[in-house]
Design a protein that fits this description.
The chain is of the alpha/beta class. The chain has one domain (about 5-270): Vaccinia Virus protein VP39 (Rossmann fold, 3-Layer(aba) Sandwich), CATH 3.40.50.150. It contains nine helices and seven strands; from the N terminus they run ααβαβαββαβααβααβ. Strands 3-2-1-4-5-7-6 form a seven-stranded mixed β-sheet, with helices on both faces. α8 (about 215-220) packs antiparallel against α9 (about 235-250). The longest helix is centred in the C-terminal third of the chain and has 17 residues, at about 235-250. The protein is globular. Bound molecules: S-adenosylmethionine. S-adenosylmethionine (SAM) binds near residues 4, 6, 70, 92 and 94. S-adenosylmethionine binds near residues 49, 52, 93 and 109.
Length: about 270
């Protein structure tokens, strides 16, 4: 598995990963502040998907281009844009179809864990960024359970934990389906520093997630909406679901929707 294309998610990505109203704008404002961007800043998003991060930039008139491995995800994004659309390109993060120094700020949100050769992704981002002065923002949303205390976690968070424990017990931990690397793995920072960057870790925005119940979390695993569930053998997945359903049957609170908090966390590399 070289990279995980989201072709199969194009039809349900927005419905299952969308932010609550106002959150994407708050994230944009956090990125603009952290990168000290202006209207002349050339953004390039690697793994732009259906535009969850990009759309508020485009709505505000920023110069914003994007690349994605998935033609289907790009088609969904294209469908949301007026005729005069920004530069959207099908391409691979490990071989970016852009010239040296093409952009001022590179952005990759929830991408590095999907790319086996994540080091090539960082090298390519470095190549296509202006120097000096280029910046690369690697970012992602915290998992719902990272922001809940261990005791008295709400039912949807407990459902996520139950799923992880079930998969670990079956010898197929969640990460098995992810060929790349976690954003906050020290190897990411080390690679960026080896490329000459100054690296900072930042929380760029806080927000409320759309309300969700434990049963909805479980339905997401049934429907395999997360990329970490795609590569698992069907028999293992079916056994894990049976165990999750047994857990759900004992959950005292399966149908109450909870509004959980989330944070948008980033690793920002700067080349002076
Ligand atoms: C989890 S989605 C994130 C999309 C968007 N950044 C967001 O936050 O909503 C990851 C995206 O990265 C794309 N992707 C995965 N591997 C890639 C690669 N090697 N090159 C370009 N895009 C890639 C997938 O197709 C998918 O659209």
């Amino acid at each position: 598995m070289q990279s995980v294309s989201f072709d199969r998610a194009a039809g349900f990505y927005d419905a299952t990963r969308g932010y609550a109203p106002g959150s994407a704008e708050r994230i944009r404002d956090g990125i603009v502040a952290a990168t000290n961007a202006s209207r002349s800043t050339r953004f390039l998003e690697i793994g732009i998907g259906t535009g969850r991060i990009a759309l508020p930039f485009l709505a505000a008139g920023y110069r914003y281009a994007g690349v994605d491995l998935s033609r289907a995800m790009l088609r969904v994004l294209q469908g949301k844009l007026p005729g005069d659309s920004p530069q959207l390109v099908v391409g691979d993060a490990t071989r970016l179809p852009f010239a040296d120094g093409h952009a001022d700020v590179g952005i990759a949100v929830h991408v590095l864990h999907l790319v086996a050769d994540w080091r090539a992704t960082l090298r390519e981002a470095y190549r296509v960024l202006r120097r000096p002065g280029g910046q690369l923002l690697l970012a992602g949303d915290t998992g719902a359970d990272e922001d809940s205390p261990d005791l008295a976690a709400p039912a949807p968070v407990q459902a996520q934990r139950a799923w992880r424990e079930i998969l670990a017990a079956l010898g197929h931990p969640v990460r098995t389906g992810q060929p790349g690397i976690r954003l906050h793995d020290p190897a990411v920072r080390a690679e960026l520093e080896a490329l000459g960057a100054q690296v900072h870790e930042l929380d760029l925005a806080e927000y409320e997630r759309p309300p969700i119940s434990a049963r909805t979390v479980a339905r997401g695993y049934h429907d395999r909406i997360y990329s970490s569930d795609w590569a698992r053998p069907d028999a293992i997945h079916a056994e894990a679901l049976a165990r999750l359903d047994a857990w759900l049957a004992t959950c005292p609170d399966p149908d109450t929707p909870y509004t959980l908090r989330g944070r948008f966390r980033a690793v920002l590399a700067r080349w002076e």
